[in-house]
Design goal:
By secondary structure, the protein is of the alpha+beta class. It is about 40% helix and about 25% strand.
């Protein structure tokens, strides 16, 4: 959603990300929450770079969207969020009046201490004040507790799973529950995928895939060289046999002409 007109028309000096708190000193809930956040962000960044409209993805960051929020020191932290049509670059916080728009998609990672707030208070803020087009939640320790909401008019509409995936209309991607190992932890993770089901790879996965492709090419060239060598050896053997046969025939002819 674009900038609130009330903010856009304000005449007094507005605080910037450099003037606003960007850290409350409270760490992420657990190591798994942190890794889940990193997995979603690190796999989406390369994809966003390739998009002509650009975009920004980050997490564990404050968002500032109203003056009342600042006065009350009601700092809202987002676990993972995506904003399209904005340039990349480092931010300390997401300040709506600086950026000109609110996030297009937000993902909250549930925990025992945050689940109720994520499903009620935060959901209403994203729906009523930020007008975030898509809102997802996911519990890293209970992967069945996941949900997708899409803004329809002024209210969120629950979107059911489709083939065990959530579809993001904003990004043209899907979110799937993927069973695998990430940084030493084997569990069910939330991951980005294309609409055809291909995972958006992490940089290290992409590098590993490229290395495997390169290794297969090396093996193919080695096989071709071996085949060429075998063919050359076979041709040489045939030439030797032919030479021996010619020599035998010449000797036989010489005997007959004596």
């Amino acid at each position: 959603m674009m900038l609130d007109p009330l903010i856009a028309e304000s005449n007094f000096s507005l605080p910037t990300q450099d003037n606003l708190p960007c850290d409350d000193g409270v760490p992420m809930e657990t190591e798994r929450h942190k890794k889940q956040m990193e997995l979603l962000i690190a796999s989406l960044e390369p994809w966003l770079i390739q998009q002509p409209q650009g975009g920004y993805v980050s997490g564990n960051m404050f968002i500032y969207y109203s003056f009342k929020q600042i006065r009350r020191q009601d700092f809202k932290g987002l676990d993972v969020f995506v904003v399209l049509d904005v340039p990349p670059g480092e931010r300390k916080s997401w300040v709506v009046w600086e950026e000109g728009k609110t996030p297009d998609l937000i993902i909250e990672l549930l925990s025992e201490s945050t689940a109720k707030k994520d499903k009620t208070n935060k959901k209403l803020i994203y729906q009523n004040q930020l007008k975030v087009a898509e809102y997802f939640w996911f519990d890293p320790f209970n992967p069945e507790d996941c949900a997708d909401f899409r803004l329809h008019g002024n209210r969120y509409e629950a979107i059911p799973l489709e083939n065990n995936r959530f579809l993001s209309q904003q990004l043209g991607l899907s979110l799937i529950r993927w069973s695998g190992t990430y940084r030493g932890v084997e569990t069910t993770w939330l991951r980005w995928a294309t609409l055809t089901g291909d995972l958006l790879l992490l940089p290290e996965e992409s590098a590993q895939q490229q290395a495997q492709v390169a290794q297969r090419r090396v093996e193919l060239v080695e096989q071709q060289l071996e085949s060429e060598t075998q063919r050359a050896q076979t041709a040489e053997q045939r030439a030797q046999v032919a030479e021996a046969e010619i020599a035998r025939l010449k000797a036989l002819l010489a005997q007959q002409t004596e």
